[in-house]
Design goal:
By secondary structure, the chain is mainly α. The protein has helices at about 15-30, 35-40, 45-50, 60-70, 75, 110-120, 130-150, 170-180, 210-225, 230-235, 240-245; strands spanning about 160, 165, 185-190, 195-200.
Length: about 280
């Protein structure tokens, strides 16, 4: 989208510049992406793509943004737009202002152990569920749950490695579970490849898992539970949180909100999708 300040002064902003300015103005107003998206009648993923500079903004959407974020088009396209202080107010939006949620995951060891037991229990006997497949299933459980509920499932942190998202401290947790007699470690051959598998020796404590958590895990298992390691790793390496993260860096849970089909698992009201 090209924005011109006047017929005599052509001030053109790139999609990236527009997205960056809108994101800063939104945060200045204390609005979450969810709140702003609802007020301008688009979906949250669409707003996320606008802020990333991957999607253009229609004239109608820009007018709604100007109303909600209280800026004039002239001030928005000015080369020296400042977001340190409030921009010149064109309109005063009457919407609830809340502080944007920031993802700071804290590992819940007990929850992680029960999630692992549940995943392994559901995958018991499946020859494809080796250690790598288990890591990928855990990743999608964690990030899918966060995308839907904006809360952490296990709170585990992940790093971007070349072969896929790698959960931190998982080796330590698995060793503890082996020592406590909760798991058995075996070596098997699957499609001529040697792999490490973990068999559950006890059931997950379902009292420690909310119905919403179990539902997300069930859907991940239903979708990916029969995938082999190359298939699920290839799929994980095309998920936006992994794609946009620098090699070796931690993957931010908030990147789950930028997903699009087929990775996005959040259900949006049809009235929000007037793009």
């Amino acid at each position: 989208m090209k924005l011109s300040k006047s017929a005599n002064m052509d001030t053109t902003l790139s999609q990236k510049q527009i997205g960056t300015r809108l994101a800063k103005l939104r945060k200045l107003k204390g609005l979450s992406q969810e709140e702003l998206a609802k007020n301008i009648k688009i979906s949250r993923p669409s707003l996320a793509q606008i802020e990333l500079g991957n999607r253009s903004v229609s004239i109608l959407e820009m007018q709604r943004l100007a109303w909600v974020l209280a800026f004039s088009i002239d001030s928005f396209i000015a080369p020296n737009l400042s977001v340190v202080e409030e921009p010149k107010v064109a309109y005063e939006p009457k919407i609830k202002v809340t502080e944007e949620r920031i993802s700071v995951p804290t590992l819940d060891v007990n929850k992680l152990k029960n999630v692992l037991l549940y995943l392994l229990e559901r995958g018991a006997g499946k020859p494809n569920v080796g250690e790598t497949v288990l890591q990928r299933l855990l990743y999608f459980c964690d990030f899918n749950y966060y995308e839907i509920y904006e809360e952490h499932l296990t709170g585990n942190k992940y790093r971007k490695l070349p072969q896929g998202p790698a959960p931190e401290k998982l080796d330590t947790i698995l060793e503890q579970m082996l020592e406590n007699g909760q798991l058995q470690k075996i070596k098997t051959t699957y499609h001529n490849t040697t792999q490490t598998r973990f068999l559950p020796l006890e059931k997950a404590d379902l009292t420690q898992l909310k119905a919403s958590e179990k539902d997300v895990m069930d859907k991940v298992i239903e979708q990916m539970g029969d995938w082999n390691e190359p298939t699920i790793s290839d799929y994980a390496c095309k998920d936006l949180p992994w794609v946009v993260t620098e090699d070796g860096k931690k993957i931010s849970y908030n990147l789950a909100f930028y997903r699009e089909a087929p990775y996005s698992v959040r259900a949006y009201d049809e009235s929000e999708n007037e793009d």
